[in-house]
């Protein structure tokens, strides 16, 4: 039995989490900030919970006369309250979407806190009305304020959540004591005659109010203490996450430096091997040529691996939201010329000739390393897929607003059906 209940609760939790994820509009860096991630998740759960309440109101509006025949509220009133709750909930979510993409996380936290503050105050007003109509302390609705008080502890500091606890008790006292002293009309819950006979006694009435007050303060104290502990753990966890992020960034930097240092000697080895294989160092025996060919193949494999490691390290650096990509004034012609010099031995091996534009300055602001990788990939592909003894033409042009670099080779090309890919 208990296992079935736990399974049902787990499935409800998954449904709520899925609904919250559909509403989520937070940027990726929220996931690496524990405090922001939790703040965002709690806010969305609050929104989702209110949608659940809207469906409950609609259900009560349909079945009110069957379920609550003696409660002095009409189905149209319940339906109107559901509509008002829906409109305000959409407004809360719209406000959230307008602030969640801000770069200033402090401003975001403050605006979310203001949003939740408005939600709690307006909910208190609606809930106070329902508690009054449903009979004040006779109704179990009198304890529904506790949910908002616990939510207040999750979002705010102790003194603010304590203020919300006092405000909820003030509303309960008004809608309960008001009818007792004849300030406002009295309403009763399920059985008006029996309730009037029981709750018209002052000692019973104020005993219940005192007990309710005690429960509210006990719940506030424990909820505030537990959430304070949770927030403290969040800060410690965030410190650990920040350390791991720094370690990962350091690892990426080390990987970049190491692989870059390896690239130069392997390029030199490749060049010397190509020189020997082309016969520029004199005739060599076939057995030595075979060994050199194997060295060349292994060098090409290692160079490919080094290039891929560099690309991976650069991509990791780019997706790291804590670190901006370095942009410098770069001459595009010089970048392409330097890449061609590195790839020239491979081109000569296939009898390929590079045709370059007239030497001129084509300046732009860019990341030099990324440009180098970009043109290395494009020109290497041009070499690999060109027919032997052909040309690879590089052209640079454009306007004051943009630059256009074109690489044209005479190779196998791409089939028409694959061009869109």
Widest β-sheet, arrangement of strands:
2-4-5
Major sheet details = 3 strands, mixed
Shape: elongated
Query: How much helix is in the residues?
Result: over 70%
Give an overview of the whole structure.
With 421 residues, the protein is mostly helical. 71% of the residues lie in helices and 6% in strands. It has eleven helices and five strands; from the N terminus they run αααααααααβαββαββ. A three-stranded mixed β-sheet has the order 2-4-5, with helices on one face. β4 (391-398) and β5 form a beta hairpin. The chain is elongated and about 120 Å long. It starts with a helix and ends in a 12-residue tail after the last strand. 16% of the residues are buried.
Keywords:
mainly alpha; three-stranded mixed sheet; two-stranded antiparallel sheet; 11 helices; 5 strands; 6% strand; elongated
In short:
71% of the residues lie in helices and 6% in strands. It has helices spanning 2-23, 34-67, 75-99, 105-133, 145-155, 158-180, 192-199, 202-277, 286-319, 332-349, 368-385; strands spanning 328-331, 353-355, 363-366, 391-398, 403-409.
Helix/strand layout:
Blueprint lengths: L1 H22 L10 H34 L7 H25 L5 H29 L11 H11 L2 H23 L11 H8 L2 H76 L8 H34 L8 E4 H18 L3 E3 L7 E4 L1 H18 L5 E8 L4 E7 L12
Parallel strand pairs: 2-4
Antiparallel strand pairs: 1-3, 4-5
Helix pairs in contact: 1-2, 2-3, 2-4, 3-4, 4-5, 4-6, 5-6, 5-8, 6-8, 8-9, 8-10, 10-11
């Amino acid at each position: 039995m208990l296992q079935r209940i736990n399974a049902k609760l787990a499935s409800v939790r998954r449904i709520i989490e899925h609904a919250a994820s559909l509403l989520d509009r937070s940027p990726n860096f929220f996931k690496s900030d524990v405090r922001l991630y939790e703040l965002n998740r709690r806010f969305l759960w609050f929104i989702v919970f209110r949608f659940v309440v809207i469906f409950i109101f609609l259900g009560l509006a349909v079945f009110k006369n069957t379920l609550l025949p003696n409660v002095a509220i009409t189905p149209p009133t319940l339906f109107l309250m559901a509509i008002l709750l829906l409109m305000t909930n959409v407004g809360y979510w719209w406000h959230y979407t307008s602030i969640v993409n801000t770069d200033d996380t402090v401003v975001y936290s403050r605006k979310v806190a203001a949003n939740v503050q408005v939600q709690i105050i307006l909910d208190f007003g609606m809930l106070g009305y329902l508690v009054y109509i449903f009979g004040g302390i006779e109704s179990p609705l009198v304890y529904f304020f506790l949910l908002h008080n616990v939510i207040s502890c999750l979002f705010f500091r102790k003194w603010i959540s304590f203020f919300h606890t006092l405000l909820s008790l003030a509303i309960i006292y008004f809608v309960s004591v008001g009818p007792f002293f004849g300030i406002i009309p009295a309403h009763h819950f399920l059985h008006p005659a029996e309730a009037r006979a029981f709750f018209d006694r002052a000692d019973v009435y104020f005993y219940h109010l005192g007990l309710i007050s005690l429960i509210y303060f006990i719940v506030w104290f424990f909820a505030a203490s537990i959430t304070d502990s949770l927030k403290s753990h969040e800060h410690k966890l965030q410190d650990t996450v920040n350390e791991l992020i720094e370690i990962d960034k350091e690892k990426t930097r080390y990987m970049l430096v190491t692989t870059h240092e390896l690239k130069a000697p392997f390029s030199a080895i490749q060049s010397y091997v190509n020189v020997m294989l082309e016969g520029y160092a004199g005739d060599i025996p076939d057995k030595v040529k075979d060994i050199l060919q194997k060295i060349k193949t292994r060098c090409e494999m290692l160079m490919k691996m080094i290039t891929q490691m560099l690309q991976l390290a650069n991509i990791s650096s780019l997706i790291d939201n804590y670190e901006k990509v370095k942009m410098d004034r770069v001459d595009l012609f010089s970048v392409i010329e330097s890449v061609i010099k590195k790839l020239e031995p491979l081109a000569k091996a296939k009898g390929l000739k590079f045709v370059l534009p007239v030497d001129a300055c084509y300046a732009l602001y860019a990341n030099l390393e990324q440009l180098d990788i970009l043109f290395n990939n494009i020109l290497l592909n041009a070499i690999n897929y060109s027919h032997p003894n052909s040309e690879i033409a590089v052209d640079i042009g454009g306007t004051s607003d943009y630059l256009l670099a074109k690489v044209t080779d005479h190779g196998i090309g791409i089939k028409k059906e694959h061009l869109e890919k």
